[in-house]
From TrEMBL:
Species this chain originates from: Xanthoceras sorbifolium
Broad class of the protein's primary localization: membrane
Keyword tags: ATP-binding, Magnesium, Membrane, Metal-binding, Nucleotide-binding, Translocase, Transmembrane, Transmembrane helix
UniProt name for this protein: Phospholipid-transporting ATPase
EC top class named in words: translocase
PROSITE patterns: ATPASE_E1_E2
Catalytic activity: ATP + H2O + phospholipidSide 1 = ADP + phosphate + phospholipidSide 2
Subcellular location: Membrane
Length: 1255
C-alpha cells in the first residue's frame, strides 16, 4: 500500500458559502414546457410507456468517421475530391473506349492500388477510433434494477430516467441529476478536468427533497418527473423542475453532473440520467477540429494544376498539329503516311474529317500524357508522413520520464509545417512555467523572511552583471548545512533559519507570526489525508497556490490535519514553552520540525487512539479546534477569500487573504502598523516574479456577527436576479477594518530548459510571443527570466493606466471611456512605430508589452493592422491579462496578417481557441487536464521539447517532403515527356512509346519506393548539427527548398533528362545493326531500351540527391532497378496475347546484345552529368547554409570552436532574443566602451603632444 494504510478520510462538506444556497424558482424556470425546454424525464421508470414514446437517444457514443455501411461511398467520395484522383478516374473510364491508347486494365489497376491503399489507411485509423468507442461504451456502472437492488451494466445500455450509483474516482456515464451522496448534506466533489482542463474540484449539492436517498433501499419506491431544457452545448447552465408527490422543486446547474467528469473525495452518489449519448453536453460541445493543410501541400496542388495546364497545352498543340498532318495526308491522290492507312480509316486518320480526328486525338492525348501527373504522389506522401510521425512519437529525446509521456503526433499532415514556423505564440502558466507553486518568501510584521532566490532574481542579477547564487543573497548566508540537506517537499521551498525549526518564537513579533501561520492553516478549502503509519498529512486543494500555503504552515509547525462539517483542527508548537524538538530527534540530521511531529505522532499512535488525544496530553504541542461558521469564497471579482471561525476561547475571528489591490484599502486605521514595509516587500516580490497575497484578520463581536449571518443567509436564499450582488454587498461590509499581518510570495517556476529552448529558437530566427492572463509586472519579470527581454532592449508598453481614463472610469461614462481608450491605444501604437522608424533597422532591439484592456481596442478592424506592423517590428511581444478569445484573435491576426506559419503552444482549456486558430497547435500534457492536448495537432510533455521538435524533426520533415515532391515531378516529367517526344516523332499519331503495363507500373513499382525511403530517412545534417547551427531552420521559414525556382529547376532537369534519353537512344539504335544476327531495332527494342535507361536515370538521380544513405535506401534504389529486369523476364515469358510486344524481348533481344548494355551505360552517365556538375559547382562555390555545415563535417572542423562560431554568428542578430544574444549584446557594449576609452586616451595623448610641440 505504498505509504501505509490510510485512515478514514475526514471530509468537509459545508465549506460552501453562497454557491450552494437553496435553489429557487427564478424567471428562467417559467420557460419550462416551452420550445427548447420540453424534455420530460421519468425517474426510475425508464420502461414506462410515456418514456418509451419520447424516443430519446441511447447512451452509445460513436466518434468514428465511417460506419460499415457508409465506409465505401464516403471514402470513395473523399478520395475523388482530389483533382488528381478525379483526373485519373476520368482517364480510367475513357480507357474502356476506342480512344484509349492502352488497355483499360492497365489504366485501372494502378488507380485501384493507389485509392485502395489510401482507403485502407483511412479504415485503419477509423478502426482505432472505433476501438476507443467500444472501450468507453463497454465500461460498467451500477444501475438500479428494481426493489432497491443495484447491478452492473454497460454504459451503452443506460437509458434516460435510469438511477445509477457512482462510486469514488469513477466517471459519470451520462449527464446526471444529483439525487444524494454519502454526505449528510448531499454534496459531492467533482473533477471536471476532461471538460475544462481545471484540476480544482467543483462542489455540487443535491436538492433537499432528495437528500434522504442515501442508501440503496431508499430508491425502491422513488418516483419523480423532471422537466428541463432540451439538449444543448452550454456547460454552465441548466434549467429544470422536479415533481415529487405533486410538488414542484426547482433545479439548477448545482445539481447537474456532466458526462466524463469524475467523482472525487466522495464515497458514492446516486443520480438520475437526464441526457444520454450524443445529447450530453460534452458531446454537444465536441466539434470537429479545423481542417488544416500545410503550405507545401497547398503549393503542391498549385503545381499539379500547373501540370494539368501543361498536359492540356501539349494535348491541344499536338492535336492541332495532328489535324494539320491528317488533312495533308492525301495529296494529289498520294498518301504520305501510308502506314496509317488513311484511305481505310473510319475517323482517326481520315483526311476528310481532320477536325473530328483532331478532337478525338485531344482526348486520346489527355490519357496518354496523364503520366506527367504522379498518380502515387498523394498516397506516397501520406505513407511517409505516418512513418515520420512514428519516428517523432518514439524519439527518446522528447520522452518525459517523470510523467511517462512521450511526444504524440495527432495530426500527421502537418509534419513539414513544423519546419516553417515563423512565429510562436505561447501561453505562460503551465507552458513556460511549471504551474507548480512553491512557497518561497513571506513578509510578517514588516519583516521579510525567506532566503530563496527565484529564477527571475537570478536573471536580474545577470542583467546587473552580478549573478546571484544559492549560497548568498544580499550579503546574508543561507541556512545551515542541515537545512540545505532537507528532502525537497513539493510546494515548499522556504529557507530561513529565523523561522524554521520553531525559531519563529524568538522573533520580535512572534505573536503576529503565530496569527500569520494560523491564518494560512485555517483560511482555505483544502481537504486533508493522514497516513496512519507515518502520520504524514497530505492535502487536496482547489489550486496549487492554496496547497502551497497549507503545506508551508505545516512545515513551519502549524499542521492542519482534520476537517469535519463544522470544524477545523490543527496542531502547533507551544509558543509559551518555546520548546523545540526532542534531543533524540535532532533536526541537524536533516529532519524538519514537521518531520519530528510526524515521528512523534507515529510513535504515539501506539498509545493514543488518534491525533486529537495525543495533542491534548502532549506538553509541547497544542491542538487548536476552530468552529467553522462561514466561508466567503474567492472569485475573480472579489479577489479575496475569508473564513469566519470561533476559536477555543470563544473569540469570533474573520481571517482574510487576497490581492494587494483590494486588501490594503480594507485595513483599519489601527491595523496599518506594517503597511509601508509590507507594500515595499510586495513590490519586491512582484519584481522577482512571485505571486503575492496579503493576509489580514479582525475580531468580531457577537452582535455584529449575528447581524451579518442573518443578512448573509437572506442574500443566499434570495430569489431576485441580483442575488450575487446582494451577497457581495453583505460580505463587503464585514470584510473591512482588518488588521494587517503580512504577505505571502509563491513562485511558479520556469520549466527545465525553457531559457535554453527559447535561446535556440530565437537563434533560428523564430519570433516568440507570450500571451498570458497574468498581470504586466509578473509577465515582464518572467520575460527577463527566460531571456525574452534583456537589458538595453527598449520596451514599448501600451496600457490604459492614464489619469484621464481612470477619472472617466470613476465617472462611469462608458462611451467616453471607450473613445478615450481607443485614442490612447492608437496614440501609443503610433509612437511605438515612430520609435521603430527612428531606429532605422539598426542594432536596437524593441519589446512590445500590451495589456488586455488595450488589446481589446488594438484588435479592432481599424487598428489591428497598425498594431501588427508594430508587433512584427519588435524582437519579442508580451500580451498580458489576455482572455482566451483575445489569444485566439491575436493568433488569427498574426497568421493572416503575416501570411507565415504560426505555432501556438499551451496547456489549458483557455488555450484551445489559440491552438485551433494557429497553423500548428502544440498541446502541453501538463497538470491542467487534457483539453489542450485533445485540441492540439501535436502533444509534448515539456516546452523544452519544442526545440528538438522544430529544429530537428521540423527541418528534416520539411526538407524530406520538399525534396520528395520535387523528385516526384522530376521522375514523372522524364517519363511523360519521353512519351510526348515519341508521339511527336511519330507525327502525333497517339502511338504510346511503351507497352501498356510498362506505362502502368512505372509510378507504382519502379520509381516510388526510393522516394518513400528518402522521405522517411534522409538527413542533410545530423540532429546534433541542427541544434548546433539553428539558423539552418531558416531554410524552411524562407521556403528555399520548395520555391518556384527550385520546383521549375527540377522540372527543367526532367525535360532535359527526357530529351537526352530519347535522342541518345534514338540515334544509337537508328539505322544500326542491333545484334549479331544483323537485325535492326524495332519499336519493341527501342521502347524497352529507353524505358531501361529511364529507370536507371531516375533511381540514380535519387542516389545523387540523397544526403544520408541507409540500408533501406540502398535496398529500395537497387531493388527498384533489379525489379525492372525481373519484371521484363517474367512479363516477357507470358503468352504473347498478354505480353504483346514485350514477349521475350529481354531474354531473346536485349540481354544477348552488347549494344543494349553499352547504350544503357552511356545514356545513363551522360544524362546524369549535368545535374552532378551543377550540384558540385554549387556545393563548392555557392553552398547553401546546410552545405556549409556539410563542409565543416567533411573537413573535420566540427570540433573547431572558432570555425563553428564563425558559421554560427550568422544566426546572431542585434534584434534577436535569448541569453546568447544577450551575452553577445553585452560583449558588444563592453567592446564599444573599450574602443571609446582607447580613442579618448589616444586623443588625450595627441593633445599633450601638440601642446609640447607648441611650447
Amino acid at each position: 500500500m505504498g505509504g501505509g494504510r490510510r485512515r478514514r478520510r475526514l471530509h468537509f462538506s459545508k465549506i460552501y458559502s453562497y454557491t450552494c444556497g437553496k435553489a429557487s424558482f427564478q424567471e428562467d424556470h417559467s420557460q419550462i414546457g416551452r420550445p427548447g425546454f420540453s424534455r420530460v424525464v421519468y425517474c426510475n421508470e425508464a420502461d414506462c410507456f410515456e418514456a418509451g414514446i419520447r424516443n430519446y437517444s441511447d447512451n452509445y457514443v460513436r466518434t468514428t468517421k465511417y460506419t460499415l455501411a457508409t465506409f465505401l461511398p464516403k471514402s470513395l467520395f473523399e478520395q475523388f475530391r482530389r483533382v488528381a484522383n478525379f483526373y485519373f478516374l476520368v482517364t480510367g473510364i475513357l480507357s474502356f473506349t476506342q480512344l484509349a491508347p492502352y488497355s483499360a486494365v492497365s489504366a485501372v489497376i494502378p488507380l485501384i492500388i493507389v485509392i485502395g491503399a489510401t482507403m485502407v489507411k483511412e479504415g485503419i485509423e477509423d478502426w482505432r477510433r472505433n476501438q476507443q468507442d467500444i472501450e468507453v461504451n463497454n465500461r460498467k456502472v451500477k444501475v438500479h434494477q428494481g426493489g432497491g437492488n443495484f447491478g452492473y451494466t454497460e454504459w451503452k445500455n443506460l437509458r434516460v430516467g435510469d438511477i445509477v450509483k457512482i462510486e469514488k474516482d469513477e466517471f459519470f456515464p451520462a449527464d446526471l441529476l444529483l439525487l444524494s451522496s454519502s454526505y449528510e448534506d448531499a454534496i459531492c466533489y467533482v473533477e471536471t478536468m476532461n471538460l475544462d482542463g481545471e484540476t480544482n474540484l467543483k462542489l455540487k449539492q443535491a436538492s433537499e427533497v432528495t437528500s434522504f436517498l442515501n442508501e440503496d433501499s431508499n430508491l425502491r419506491d422513488f418516483k419523480a418527473i423532471i422537466k428541463c431544457e432540451d439538449p444543448n452545448a452550454n456547460l454552465y447552465s441548466f434549467v429544470g423542475t422536479m415533481e415529487i408527490e405533486e410538488q414542484q422543486h426547482p433545479l439548477t446547474p448545482q445539481q447537474l453532473l456532466l458526462r466524463d467528469s469524475k467523482l472525487r473525495n466522495t464515497d458514492y452518489i446516486y443520480g438520475a440520467i437526464i441526457f444520454t449519448g450524443h445529447d450530453t453536453k460534452v458531446i454537444q460541445n465536441s466539434t470537429d477540429p479545423p481542417s488544416k493543410r500545410s503550405r507545401i501541400e497547398k503549393k503542391m496542388d498549385r503545381v499539379i494544376y500547373f501540370m494539368f495546364f501543361v498536359v492540356f497545352s501539349m494535348s491541344f498543340i499536338g492535336s492541332i498539329l495532328f489535324g494539320i498532318a491528317t488533312k495533308n495526308d492525301l495529296e494529289n491522290g498520294k498518301m504520305k503516311r501510308w502506314y496509317l492507312r488513311p484511305d481505310s480509316s473510319t475517323i482517326f486518320f481520315d483526311p476528310k474529317r481532320a477536325p473530328a480526328a483532331a478532337i478525338y486525338h485531344f482526348l486520346t492525348a489527355l490519357m496518354l500524357y496523364s503520366y506527367f501527373i504522379p498518380i502515387s504522389l498523394y498516397v506516397s506522401i501520406e505513407i511517409v508522413k505516418v512513418l515520420q510521425s512514428i519516428f517523432m512519437n518514439q524519439d527518446i529525446h522528447m520522452y518525459y520520464e517523470e510523467a511517462d509521456k512521450p511526444a504524440y503526433v495527432r495530426t500527421t499532415n502537418l509534419n513539414e509545417e513544423l519546419g516553417q514556423v515563423d512565429t510562436i505564440l505561447s501561453d505562460k502558466t503551465g507552458t513556460l512555467t511549471c504551474n507548480s507553486m512553491e512557497f518561497i518568501k513571506c513578509s510578517v510584521a514588516g519583516t521579510a523572511y525567506g532566503r530563496g532566490v527565484t529564477e527571475v532574481e537570478r536573471a536580474m542579477g545577470r542583467r546587473k552583471g552580478s549573478p546571484l547564487n544559492n549560497e548568498k543573497v544580499i550579503g546574508v548566508n543561507l541556512m545551515e548545512d542541515y537545512t540545505e540537506s532537507r528532502p525537497s517537499i513539493k510546494g515548499f521551498n522556504f529557507k530561513d533559519e529565523r523561522i524554521m525549526n520553531g525559531n519563529w518564537v524568538n522573533e520580535p513579533h512572534s505573536d503576529v507570526m503565530q496569527k500569520f501561520f494560523r491564518l494560512l492553516a485555517i483560511c482555505h478549502t483544502a481537504i486533508p489525508e493522514v497516513d496512519e503509519n507515518t502520520g504524514k498529512v497530505s492535502y487536496e486543494a482547489e489550486s496549487p497556490d492554496e496547497a502551497a500555503f497549507v503545506i508551508a504552515a505545516r512545515e513551519i509547525g502549524f499542521e492542519f490535519y482534520k476537517r469535519t462539517q463544522t470544524s477545523i483542527s490543527m496542531c502547533e508548537l507551544d509558543p509559551v514553552s518555546g520548546n523545540k524538538v526532542d534531543s533524540s530527534l535532532d533536526p541537524a540530521d536533516g529532519t524538519s520540525s514537521i518531520d519530528v511531529i510526524c515521528s512523534i505522532l507515529t510513535i504515539s499512535f501506539c498509545l493514543f487512539d488518534d491525533l486529537d488525544t495525543y495533542c491534548s496530553v502532549n506538553t509541547r504541542l497544542e491542538s487548536g479546534l476552530y468552529e467553522l461558521l462561514n466561508v466567503l469564497e474567492f472569485n475573480s471579482t472579489r479577489k479575496r477569500m475569508s473564513v469566519i471561525v470561533r476559536d477555543e476561547e470563544g473569540k469570533l475571528l474573520l481571517l482574510c487573504k487576497g490581492a494587494d489591490s483590494v486588501m490594503f484599502e480594507r485595513l483599519a486605521k489601527t491595523g496599518r502598523a506594517f503597511e509601508d514595509k509590507t507594500r515595499d516587500h510586495v513590490n519586491e516580490y512582484a519584481d522577482a516574479g512571485l505571486r503575492t497575497l496579503i493576509l489580514a484578520y479582525r475580531e468580531l463581536d457577537e452582535e455584529e456577527y449575528k447581524a451579518f449571518d442573518e443578512k448573509f443567509s437572506e442574500a443566499k436564499n434570495s430569489v431576485s436576479e441580483n442575488r450575487e450582488t446582494l451577497i457581495d454587498e453583505v460580505t463587503e461590509k464585514i470584510e473591512n477594518d482588518l488588521v494587517l499581518l503580512g504577505a505571502t510570495a509563491v513562485e511558479d517556476k520556469l520549466q527545465n530548459g525553457v531559457p535554453d529552448c527559447i535561446d535556440k529558437l530565437a537563434q533560428a530566427g523564430i519570433k516568440i510571443w507570450v500571451l498570458t492572463g497574468d498581470k504586466m509586472e509578473t509577465a515582464i519579470n518572467i520575460g527577463f527570466s527566460c531571456s525574452l527581454l534583456r537589458q538595453g532592449m527598449k520596451q514599448i508598453i501600451i496600457n490604459l493606466e492614464t489619469p484621464q481614463i481612470k477619472a472617466l472610469e470613476k465617472a462611469g461614462e462608458k462611451s467616453a471611456i471607450t473613445k478615450a481608450s481607443k485614442e490612447s491605444v492608437l496614440r501609443q501604437i503610433t509612437e511605438g512605430k515612430a520609435q521603430l522608424t527612428a531606429s532605422g533597422g539598426g542594432s536596437e532591439a524593441f519589446a512590445l508589452i500590451i495589456d488586455g484592456k488595450s488589446l481589446t481596442y488594438a484588435l479592432e478592424d481599424d487598428l489591428k493592422n497598425k498594431f501588427l506592423e508594430l508587433a512584427v517590428g519588435c524582437a519579442s511581444v508580451i500580451c498580458c491579462r489576455s482572455s482566451p478569445r483575445q489569444k485566439a484573435l491575436v493568433t488569427r491576426l498574426v497568421k493572416s496578417g503575416t501570411g507565415k506559419t504560426t505555432l501556438a503552444i499551451g496547456d489549458g482549456a483557455n488555450d484551445v481557441g489559440m491552438l485551433q486558430e494557429a497553423d500548428i497547435g502544440i498541446g502541453i500534457s501538463g497538470v491542467e487536464g487534457m483539453q489542450a492536448v485533445m485540441s492540439s495537432d501535436i502533444a509534448i510533455a515539456q516546452f523544452r521539447y519544442l526545440e528538438r521538435l522544430l529544429l530537428v524533426h521540423g527541418h528534416w520533415c520539411y526538407r524530406r517532403i520538399s525534396s520528395m515532391i520535387c523528385y516526384f515531378f522530376y521522375k514523372n516529367i522524364v517519363f511523360g515527356f519521353s512519351v510526348f517526344l515519341y508521339e511527336a516523332y511519330t507525327s502525333f499519331s497517339a502511338q504510346p512509346a511503351y507497352n501498356d503495363w510498362f506505362l502502368s507500373l512505372y509510378n507504382v513499382f519502379f520509381s516510388s519506393l526510393p522516394v518513400i525511403a528518402m522521405g522517411v530517412f534522409d538527413q542533410d545534417v545530423s540532429a546534433r548539427c541542427c541544434l548546433k547551427f539553428p539558423l539552418l531552420y531558416q531554410e524552411g521559414v524562407q521556403n528555399v527548398l520548395f520555391s518556384w525556382r527550385r520546383i521549375f529547376g527540377w522540372m527543367l532537369n526532367g525535360y532535359f533528362s527526357a530529351v537526352m534519353v530519347f535522342f541518345f537512344c534514338l540515334k544509337a539504335l537508328e539505322n544500326q545493326v542491333f545484334n549479331i544476327d544483323g537485325k535492326t531495332a524495332g519499336r519493341d527494342i527501342f521502347s524497352a531500351t529507353m524505358y531501361t535507361c529511364i529507370v536507371w536515370v531516375v533511381n540514380l538521380q535519387m542516389a545523387l540527391a540523397i544526403n544520408y544513405f541507409t540500408l533501406i535506401q540502398h535496398l529500395f534504389i537497387w531493388g527498384s532497378i533489379a525489379l525492372w529486369y525481373i519484371f521484363m523476364m517474367a512479363y516477357g515469358a507470358m503468352s504473347p496475347t498478354f505480353s504483346t510486344n514485350a514477349y521475350r524481348v529481354f531474354l531473346e533481344a536485349l540481354a544477348p546484345a552488347p549494344s543494349f548494355w553499352l547504350v544503357t551505360l552511356f545514356v545513363v552517365i551522360t544524362t546524369l552529368i549535368p545535374f552532378f556538375s551543377y550540384n558540385a559547382i554549387q556545393m563548392r562555390f555557392f553552398p547553401m547554409y546546410h552545405g556549409m555545415i556539410q563542409w565543416i563535417r567533411l573537413e573535420g572542423q566540427s570540433n573547431d570552436p572558432e570555425y563553428c562560431d564563425m558559421v554560427r554568428q550568422r544566426s546572431l542578430r542585434p534584434t534577436t532574443v535569448g541569453f546568447t544574444a544577450r551575452v553577445a549584446a553585452r560583449t558588444n557594449r563592453i567592446n564599444k566602451a573599450r574602443n571609446l576609452e582607447s580613442h579618448m586616451i589616444q586623443s588625450e595623448s595627441f593633445s599633450i603632444s601638440v601642446r609640447k610641440c607648441g611650447m
